[in-house]
Amino acid sequence: MTPESLTTDSLPRAPGNALPTSASSAASLPSPSIPALLQSCWDAQLACQDAEVLSLALELGMFTCLDSFTRAERVAALLALSPVNTHLFLEFLASMGVLESAQGDHRPPSYRMHPAIRPYLHPDSALYVGDALLFRHKVLSRSREQLEVLLRKGVPGAESITAEAAQHTWAQAAQTQIAQEQRAVTVPVARRIAAQLPDHDQWRTMLDLGGGPGLVSIALAEDLPALSGTVFEYPAVAAVAQLNIEAAHLQDRLRGIGGDLLSDDFGCGYDLIWCSSVLHFVTCMEPVLQRLHAALNPGGVLVCCHAEVGAGSADNHRVLQYYLRMRMQGRQVLPAGELAERLHGAGFSEVTTFDDVVFPVAPVAVLIARKGRLFS
Ligand SMILES: C[S@@+](CC[C@H](N)C(=O)[O-])C[C@H]1O[C@@H](n2cnc3c(N)ncnc32)[C@H](O)[C@@H]1O
C-alpha cells in the first residue's frame, strides 16, 4: 500500500468508533496507543529543530525586526529572505512561544517577540543572552563526537588541558556568555539571596571565588555601599573582571586578583564568600572547603551555588543533560546532600540548602554555610 492509498476507508475501524460521514465534521480517529517513552524519543529529536531555528533567528538578527507586530513579508524584505518561507519560519517561532501572532481580518498574521522574552532576545536590552544561547548551541552541537570519545576512552588525563589553555577559554567566556548569563540570571539571584540573609547590611568584605566577569560582586557592591571585595580568578579572567569593575567606577572598593585557586592565596578576613559553579573544577574539594572556612571572619557566610545530581526533582534530568559531558570529563557534580556534608566536615556550623534554584541553563542547589554563629 502506498502512502496515497492510506485513506480513511483503509483505516481499521474500532468497534463503536464510527468514522465521520461528513467531510467537514471533526472527530477523533481511533489511534493505537504508543508508549509515552517512544514519544519522548521523538520529542528529544524534535527539540534539536527548535534549537536550530532559534539559533538561525538570532544569527540573522530576526528579533530586531520583531519589536512590534510585523508581517512576514516585511521581515523578509528587511533581511533579504524568501517571503513564503519567512512566514513558515515565523509561524514555527510562534509555535515555540517566543513570538506572539496577531491575525488581521483576511490578512496574513503579523508577529512580534513575546513581551516576556523580549528583554533576553533583543540585542539592545541589558539582559540580552543571544550570544550565550548561540555559544551553548555550538557546544551542544559538537557534543555527539565528544561523548563518543569520552565513552570509548574514559575520563581524560589531567594533562589533557593545561591551566594556561583553560584560562584563555574562560576569559573569552567571561567576556560574552558568562557575562550575559550573569546579567540576566545570576545577578538577580545573588541580589535576592543577599537581601534575605539577616546580616547582609553588616558585610564589609567579600570574595567572589571564580567569579568570571565579576558582575555578582559589582551588583552586591552597588547594593551595599559599605562592601569591598575581591574577584579571585585565573589571571586572564581577573583582567576581564577588573575592566568591568572600572567600567562600573568601583575600583576603590573592588579588584580582580589573578591566581589559581588550587595553589594561590585567595586572601582572608571575608564576611561573605560567593562561590558559584566553581567547585565542579576542583578535583580535591576538602582542602579548598577548609581554606574557604579559614578565609571567613567568625560569623561569616559562604554561599555556594552548585548543581547537584539526584535530588529527585523534576529538574534532575535538566541537570544531567547540562552536565553529562562535564561529568564524563571527570568534573565534580556531587550527589544531592554531599556538598552539605563536606561543608560540615570542613568546619561550617550551620548549612542550609535550597534546592532547585533558578540559574543559567539548569537549576542549582544553593547552600548557605556559616562559620560559627551569626555575629550580632
Ligand atoms: C562556570 S564559571 C562560573 C563563573 C561564575 N562564578 C558564575 O557563576 O557565573 C567557572 C569559573 O571558575 C574559574 N576557575 C575554574 N578553576 C579555577 C582555578 N583553578 N583558579 C581560578 N579560577 C578558576 C573559571 O575561570 C571560571 O570563570
From TrEMBL:
CDD domains (alphabetical): AdoMet_MTases
One Pfam family named in its UniProt record: Dimerisation
Any GO BP: methylation
Region (Disordered): 1-26
InterPro entries named in the record: COMT-like, COMT_C, COMT_dimerisation, SAM-dependent_MTases_sf, WH-like_DNA-bd_sf
Any one GO molecular function term: protein dimerization activity
Domain O-methyltransferase C-terminal: 198-349
Polar residues bias spans: 1-10
Keyword S-adenosyl-L-methionine: yes
Domain O-methyltransferase dimerisation: 51-116
Keywords, ordered alphabetically: Methyltransferase, S-adenosyl-L-methionine, Transferase
Keyword Methyltransferase: yes
Name of the protein described by the UniProt record: O-methyltransferase
Organism classification: Bacteria, Pseudomonadati, Pseudomonadota, Gammaproteobacteria, Pseudomonadales
